[in-house]
Amino acid sequence: MGVYEPGTEAEAGEIVRAAAGRGERLRLAGGGTAAGLGRPAQDSATLSAKALTGVTLYEPAEMVVAARAGTPLAEVEDLLASQGQMLPFEPMDLRGLYGTTGEPTFGAVAAINNAGPRRINAGAARDSLIGVRFVNGRGEAIKSGGRVMKNVTGLDLVKLMAGAHGTLGLLTEVTFKVLPSCERVATLIFPGLDDARGIAALSEALGSPFELTGAAHLPTGIGAPQARTLMRLEGFSDSIDYRTGELRRLLKRYGSAEILDGEAGAALWRSVRDAAPLAEPREAALWRISTAPTHGPALAAAIAAERDARWFFDWGGGLIWLATGSEGDAGAATVRRAVQAQGGHATLVRAPDAVRAAVPVFQPLAEPLMRLTAGIKAAHDPAGLLNPGRMYAGL
C-alpha cells in the first residue's frame, strides 16, 4: 500500500486528483496515534499530513494560533505556554489507549474534535476552532473561517470538519482561539462516595457559582483502592482559596475533602483526560458514552448487570469511560440498550478490527440523519475516496 506525504496543500490536491483518476481510496493520517479510532479503513493507499508542518500564525494579543495540520501538538502547546497561554479544551493523548507511538498532530485535534475534562467549562475543540483549510475529495483547496469568531449563515464548514474524522477532506491548516494559562490549579478530592453520591456532589458543585474546570468520579478500584470524587478549580490563588472554602462548606454532607495542588494534581487530571485507569488490559474493549450527568450511574449499572465492566465518570457524570470484554460484539447490544433507555450516545473507542467492522462504532443514526450525512459526504467527496467507511459503513 502506497503512502503519500505531500509537503504543500497544492501537492495534496494533485495527489487526490490523481487518486480519483485511478479510483484509489485514501486513508488520511497524521501522526498515527489514533489509528484505532473508527471503523477499520477500507482503502488502498495512505495520504498523510505528516509533512505539512509549521505554525503559520500566532498573535498572543489576539489569542489566536494557526498551524499546518501535521504540526506536532506538543510544539504548539509549548509555544503557547511560553506566552502564558493554552488550548482551552485540553485535548487527550490517545497513545496509552492504543499503544501507538509518534506524535499527536494539530490537525487531528480538529479532525476528531478532541477534548478532555475542561470541556465542561470551555467547550469542545470545535467550540474554539475558528478556521480551517482542507483538500476535498475533488482535490480542491477550500478555506473557511479566519482569525475571529463570527456568526455563520448557511453550511458552517469549520464546525462541519470538526469531528468528521477525515471523511470530508484532508485538513491542511487549522486555527484555534486560545486562553490565558492559570496562575494556580487545585483539586478538591472527596473520598469514599458511591457513584450516585459522587455524581450528586459533582452536580451540586457544577450548579454553584464557584466555576469548576474539571468534575470527575473514579469508583473504588479505578486507579486507587478508594473511590474519589474530583473537582478542579483554576485561576488566581486568592480566588481558589475562597472557592475551595465555599465548596467545602456547601458540600460538607459529602464528607471532608482534601486539596491537591501542583504536579500531583496535574498528573491526576492527565490520567482522567487520557482514560489511563482503563488503558489496561489493552485487549479490553473501551466505550465512550455520553448521557445526562444524573443518568450516568444508572446507565453504567445497567451495563454491569449484564456483563463484567469497569468505568469512571468525567464531565460531571455526563461522560462514562467503560471497559468490558472484547469478545462477541464487545458489549454493543448491551451498551446500546442502556443508552436507549437512559438517553445519550456511545462510541466504541477501542476493539479488535473484526469487531469494529461488524458492529457500529459510532452511534447509529436515524434514517433522516443518515441521508443528510450521505448527502454531505457526496457533496465534498463524490467518489468516496477519503477515509471510506471510517465512520459509517458504505460512506
UniProtKB/TrEMBL annotation:
<protein>
    <submittedName>
        <fullName>2-hydroxy-acid oxidase</fullName>
    </submittedName>
</protein>
<feature type="domain" description="FAD-binding PCMH-type">
    <location>
        <begin position="1"/>
        <end position="181"/>
    </location>
</feature>
<keyword id="KW-0285">Flavoprotein</keyword>
<dbReference type="GO" id="GO:0071949">
    <property type="term" value="F:FAD binding"/>
</dbReference>
<dbReference type="Pfam" id="PF01565">
    <property type="entry name" value="FAD_binding_4"/>
</dbReference>
<keyword id="KW-0274">FAD</keyword>
<dbReference type="InterPro" id="IPR016166">
    <property type="entry name" value="FAD-bd_PCMH"/>
</dbReference>
<dbReference type="InterPro" id="IPR006094">
    <property type="entry name" value="Oxid_FAD_bind_N"/>
</dbReference>
<dbReference type="InterPro" id="IPR016164">
    <property type="entry name" value="FAD-linked_Oxase-like_C"/>
</dbReference>
<dbReference type="InterPro" id="IPR016169">
    <property type="entry name" value="FAD-bd_PCMH_sub2"/>
</dbReference>
<dbReference type="InterPro" id="IPR036318">
    <property type="entry name" value="FAD-bd_PCMH-like_sf"/>
</dbReference>
<dbReference type="GO" id="GO:0003824">
    <property type="term" value="F:catalytic activity"/>
</dbReference>
